[in-house]
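Hey,
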Amino acid sequence: SQAILYPYDTPTRQTKSLDGLWRFKLDPTAAGHEEEWYKSSLAGDDVMEMPVPCSFNDITTDASIRDYLGVVWYDRDFILPSAWIQENVVLRFGSVHFSAEVWIDGVWVGSHEGGHMAFEFQVSTLLNTETTKHRVTVAVNN
């Protein structure tokens, strides 16, 4: 395991926070992987907005969410600054409890296990340089 320093903007490094409201969906029947939810934006009447960072179990008073254990899905769109197209782009998570699987625009990025630990993925080669709008999807199992 290696330590990951917290990224700060410097003259040679820019950061972009993806904190904010993400689309969120419980997956009590474990259908998300089989139905390939990572291939498009989460949709349906059961999709809600969830603040990130947060513990979804602590955000709502709805017992079905507050007491939920299992896989949940998050996704959000983001704009890649045009100046970053030829740069080294790293997707960093401060922590995900307990396991995470990550996709960019429906393409597998990687996975991580271990709550409360930062992790990151090199995603430069996964970003289509024809567009600046992208989607990150994360399946989390708490």
